[in-house]
Design goal:
By secondary structure, the protein is α/β, with parallel strands linked by helices. It is built from ten helices and 15 strands. The protein has helices at residues 9-17, 48-52, 69-81, 97-112, 130-142, 169-179, 216-234, 267-278, 307-320, 359-364, and strands spanning 37-42, 86-91, 115-121, 152-153, 156-162, 186-190, 202-204, 239-244, 248-249, 260-261, 283-286, 354-355, 372-377, 384-391, 397-403. The strands form three sheets. It has an eight-stranded parallel barrel with strand order 1-2-3-5-6-7-8-11, surrounded by four helices. A four-stranded antiparallel β-sheet has the order 12-13-14-15, with no helix packed on it. A two-stranded antiparallel ribbon has the order 9-10.
Length: 404
């Protein structure tokens, strides 16, 4: 789902009020095995005002402030017990509270034998453009990725990227050649355009809950096959990371165009895990441990108690003991890329429908046939607009980010 809410004044205000000192962390412990990792997206920008805002669909069992070390310690302990190997913290770059909280989370993780990686969020208001991204990535590689608790696979740090479509394929190629020319890290792209795999080492869908209601049993095996086909056609060994979600509900955070995917007492989460395992992923990523504004949390809550941690424990165990071996990891991936369509809740149109003139949009969905109608949307203060395309021969919509 689109996460532009992170640019809203209320969350930014909360972020700027949170501060925590950088603490040294140098404990040594074993990194997780490369195969069958279970990861979870993690957000460290809440304070007590969050829980009073009326913008979350539920509340934690214990409302908290993200910057508090005891909060992080509790979350790490809960995740470990549920079989999660690492948190993927949404990171807005250096010189802001997500960076201070990352440093603390790494120290807390080291104390408990847990791991942390970063979701490099290109929507961050604290960095913009290739030069800034390069500066922040160099900082990440030299400072945080050197920490003992930072997630490494085959001795390479893992970095997820959100909203890679902000840059062209060629811009990403130049950025990687500048920052990580020898592919000493795993760069994992997000979106629905596999051309980015020409530069990145792996692929995931941030969300698998879209307004068209497509079932995870269709989405995940299909995307696993697409990555497999890409590897066969290009002679590569890119990673497929399957996403699982317990549900979704952003109606309070986005009253104009939010929507919900009911949890069905855990049944939807079970369906996601079944579909994820069927897609034969290298890793699974949970969206999310604590994304409260979008209602995709598995953290214990007042509405669901510890149900989703218990389900996570069952399914992580099943995934890790799986009867069929996951695809093998390669020691290095060579570079390649394309703009990434990312599904978004349907906003209010500002232009009429038109026949889609862009063949790259039609081709980006692969097997969908026929012409499509496109509608352009603008939701300031976004740095881009959206084309939402409905294929005349297929009863669903595809949202595609475009530059202004």
């Amino acid at each position: 789902m689109n996460r532009q809410k992170r640019r809203s004044a209320s969350i930014l205000s909360s972020l700027l009020t949170v501060g925590l000192c950088l603490l040294p962390g140098s404990l040594s412990f074993a990194q997780p095995q490369a195969e069958r990792l279970v990861l979870a997206f993690y957000y460290a920008w809440y304070d007590q005002n969050t829980w009073k805002s009326g913008r979350v669909p539920d509340l934690p069992l214990s409302p908290y402030t993200s910057a508090h070390r005891e909060t992080m310690a509790r979350h790490v302990g809960q995740a470990k017990q549920a079989g999660i190997d690492a948190f993927i913290l949404n990171w807005w770059g250096k010189n802001n509270p997500t960076n201070k909280n990352l440093a603390t989370l790494l120290d807390v993780a080291a104390e408990q034998g847990f791991h942390v990686a970063v979701d490099f969020d290109l929507n961050s208001p604290f960095m913009s453009g290739p030069a800034a991204y390069a500066d922040h990535l160099r900082y990440l590689h030299t400072v945080h990725a050197a920490h003992k608790a930072y997630l490494r696979v085959q001795n390479r740090p893992v970095i997820f990227f959100y909203n890679v479509s902000r840059l062209s394929v060629s811009a990403w190629q130049a950025l990687r050649e500048e920052v990580d020319p020898h592919h000493n890290a795993w760069w994992i792209a997000e979106g629905t355009d596999l051309k980015y795999l020409s530069v990145f080492d792996g692929h995931h869908l941030y969300s698998i809950i879209w307004p068209n209601g497509m079932a995870p049993a269709h989405i995940l095996p299909s995307w696993g096959k697409r990555v497999q086909t890409y590897n066969q056609q290009h002679g590569t060994n890119k990673l497929w990371i399957a996403t699982v979600m317990p549900g979704y509900d952003d109606r309070k955070a986005r009253p104009a165009h939010g929507f919900a995917r009911p949890r069905q007492d855990g049944e939807f989460y079970r369906q996601c895990w079944q579909a994820a395992i069927a897609s034969r992923p290298h890793w699974v990523v949970i969206n999310s441990f604590n994304e409260w504004l979008e209602g995709s949390y598995i953290e214990p809550s007042q509405a669901y108690g510890t149900l989703y941690l218990e389900l996570t424990r069952e399914w992580t165990a099943q995934f890790k003991k799986g009867s069929s071996a996951p695809p093998a990891l390669s020691s290095r991936s060579s570079p390649r890329l394309r703009p990434s369509p990312t599904p978004t809740p349907s906003p209010t149109p500002d232009l009429p429908d038109l026949i889609c003139p862009w063949p790259e949009i039609r081709s980006s969905v692969g097997s969908l046939p026929g012409q499509c109608l496109c509608r352009r949307f603008e939701n300031p203060p976004r740095a881009r607009a959206w084309l939402t395309c409905r294929f005349l021969d297929f009863p669903s919509w595809l949202s595609v980010p475009i530059a202004y």
